[in-house]
Amino acid sequence: RNINPDVITFNALIDGFVKEGKLLEAKELYGEMIQMSVAPDIFTYTSLINGLCIEGRVDEAKEMFHLMESKGCFPDVVAYTSLINGYCKSQKVEDGMKIFYEMSRKGLLGNTVTYTTLIQGFCQVGKHKVAQEVFSQMVSRGVPPNIRTYNVLLHGLCLNGRLDKALMIFEDMEKREMSMS
């Protein structure tokens, strides 16, 4: 009896390799998948985009992102956030923000992880005011900040000598009844 792997099988293996830091093997499996005429899905592409971003290969991740779109596989908030994270980790936060705006134009709303990623990116490049604006936008759009969001923003403000602002954010966090765990 001949059993051939399907998209779910390939996705599990590709994601496993990405999580183990074995992007080369993940990309080889992707190639094998294509050769076997197994169509990649959003999960396949997002895993590869994430793996490329982890390795700092954001330009390749962007190419994979465009390839995904060209194949009729439209990115979701997780795929966009993976790419945004890649730009932020590469200190190209403005490019990450462009991706965020592109996502918004396509009708997708950022989630808590998306906003926290941008806030952290702006804090890391010393743009605490922009990080605060992103935080304000997050709250005004009804996206709930979590403890990580607050910790990232508080840390960024403290590193930039903005203890006054950090205290205000801390008080806001207390109002929302979050603990500093």
TrEMBL record:
The keyword RNA-binding does not apply. PPR repeats lie at residues 6-40, 41-75, 76-110, 111-145, 146-180. Keywords: Repeat. InterPro entries: PPR_rpt, TPR-like_helical_dom_sf. Belongs to the PPR family. P subfamily. This is Pentatricopeptide repeat-containing protein, mitochondrial. It comes from Noccaea caerulescens.
